[in-house]
Amino acid sequence: MKSIIADLNKLFDHRVRLGIMSLLMVNEWVDFKTLKEMLEVTDGRLASHIKALEDHQYIEIRKQFIGRKPNTSYRATKLGKEAFTNHLDALEKIIRGNET
Length: 100
What we know:
Elements (H helix, E strand, L loop, with lengths): L14 H12 L3 E2 H8 L3 H13 L3 E8 L2 E8 L1 H19 L4
């Protein structure tokens, strides 16, 4: 018998990565400062979770200058959106009791 959690994506097990992807699914681009404020995490903690998502090619990074200040923004890639949607679908199956 297949485990009910087999289809969950382990990368989204952590609430910070879950939060990052949730924000990126509903916004085209989100900058580092906004992610940090919305998720209430430190720079280092956010950076490590962003790196994990980047390593799996789930997010894209854009570095630019606004005025004279550097600005780093992120968006979910097509692969990231598909992986996150599949994760949410697996969660819904568990909640609804549908293992098929």
